[in-house]
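Contributing new records

If you add data, match the layout below exactly. Sequence lines come first and carry their own label; structure lines follow with theirs. Keep one chain per record. Anything else will be rejected by the validation script.
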Amino acid sequence: MDIWDKYKAINESLKKEFLCVPPYRSVTPQYVCDCYDKLQKEGDCSGNIVLSVNLPWERAFQMEYRYKKCDIFKDFIPAIEMALYDFAIGNWVCAYLTLLPMVEALIRKLTEGKIVSNKKRIYMSDYIQCFLDEYENAAKSYYNDTRAPIKEAYLEYLGYILKETLFDNFDSYYAKNYEFVFNRNLTLHKMEGLENESKVSRNITRIFLLLDIFAEAWMLQDARLYNSNTLEIDPNSDLDFQVRYKLYVYLYTKAVGPCDIHYVHNALRGSCGWKCSDEEKKTLISQLEMQTALYQKMPL
């Protein structure tokens, strides 16, 4: 079995998780082999993909060398910044609700002025198909014959996610009996899929992956832009990247221990599988009163 057969097998296994092998510099032949070996041994390698997408280094890279460099993301940078912050501190519901509408907004941006139709009304399905056509055209020149499976894999993934899951209507989505609620109509119109914190976190990973593929698709239209932000960069000496990367590491680390968002999860909601006892709540109240008193004594 060659590397491309393994690549296809991995993506096929990830389909049920609404994931795919990401478009990152870290995805080397060894990365593919490691994922495939885990798939063979454990029957699932989605954890490798989730880790790759969520790594502080990758989030900083995508922000500095993809989103901020792509014109289509320009208006959304403030929202992405806040969503990334919320994600890093564990405020997953707010992060997800910020990111979810962005998928449609970006598809509309990517296809602006490119849809030719005689229909009186242009539907979301028209925008999606136009986007897929534009991506295929842009990818042709970069993903040459030897790397054609990469282009085909992303086309298949995007078609599946955009046509069959994320923008599906209520009845059609219910009929498919998916394990997860990864559907903008159900979440934005009926607020479904927000009850389980871990599932919301996984949905954020899926949105990040989509945004990363969108950014890649935009950059592939300009070889100079793509190369200058892929081959000609040095994140280790880039102060903007380093500040962002170190901030994300700090926020991720801080979110592991006691923090305000954990008070919400555990003391008030009990949403992470554990809830404070009454005695622990009394202790927490005393701690919060003490902290508030200290802040009030600080000079302005």
